[in-house]
Amino acid sequence: PLVSMKDMLNKAKDEGYAVGQFNLNNLEYAQAILQAAEEEKSPVIIGVSEGAAKYCGGFNVVVAMIKSLMEAYGTTVPVAIHLDHGSSFAKCAQAIHAGFTSVMIDASAEPLDDNIAWTKKVVELAHLHGVSVEAELGRVGGQEDGIIVEDAEAAYAIPSECERLVRETGVDCFAPALGSVHGPYKGEPNLGFDRMEEVQKLTGVPLVLHGGTGIPTKDIQRAISLGSAKINVNTESQMAQVQTVREVLAENPDLYDPRKYLGPSRDKIKETVIGKMREFGSSQKA
Ligand code: G3H
Ligand code: ZN
């Protein structure tokens, strides 16, 4: 069924695992993610950025696509459709009205008071509709959807500010930027685990780890043990997909039917998602 993230993340936090947010880029991602979740009996969050939604034809198209696939597949596991890095109250409201079951309001580039004010507005609307909300403080480094954040070090979230934001807004989960990066890491990631522990103690809500691509398993496990109950992955699925497309096209230079390269690459996305579900411990938890 389609659900918000609230119950799935609270359960994950209590039981010591994380639910993956896997980003959708087109139809094949929705298929691969839903197939993986059902096979693994895992709850799943389908992340949709504003750019990805636009690419697909808008929020309504995304919701209709996921809903009809769930019907066609007979999906039994909990699925959340989540707006990833929502850029404004208006975008969050549009997603909610289109049927998204969860939204992230990312006002992390704003001063703290504005971030809190916008997040609070989104929570008021979302909760009326049974929709869950994620907020962010500090900046996740790297590049995603044209948002470039240069110096992740300077952007570590401050625990006391995190406590205030969560308390004043009533968000369901919270992403403190603690050194994670969108896209591949340059060298080993340097996550602020001491701060993560502090933020977990101060806020009490499930934490979210962005930039899940390229984080070593030991760091994933440590983050989960410190209250990270949602981990976002996009780039790794994209890399698996494109590598397969390249291989298939290189081996078959005369090939032109898109199903012949998108099909096998969809299976690679699915394999990647299954691997993450096992790593995060969400398999068999639905
Ligand atoms: O919000 C999306 C994620 O944080 C994805 O990060 O592309 O590095 O896996 P990633
Ligand atoms: Zn992110």
UniProtKB/TrEMBL annotation:
The active site is at D84 (proton donor). Keywords: Lyase, Metal-binding, Zinc. The keyword Iron-sulfur does not apply. The keyword Ligase does not apply. Dihydroxyacetone phosphate binds at G183, G211, G212, T213, N232, V233, N234, T235. Zn(2+) 1 binds at H85, H182, H210. Its cofactor is Zn(2+). It comes from the Bacteria. GO terms for biological process: fructose 1,6-bisphosphate metabolic process; glycolytic process. GO terms for molecular function: fructose-bisphosphate aldolase activity; zinc ion binding. InterPro entries: Aldolase_TIM, Class_II_FBP_aldolase, FBA_II, Fruc_bis_ald_class-2. Binds 2 Zn(2+) ions per subunit. One is catalytic and the other provides a structural contribution. Zn(2+) 2 binds at D106, E136. This is Fructose-1,6-bisphosphate aldolase, class II.
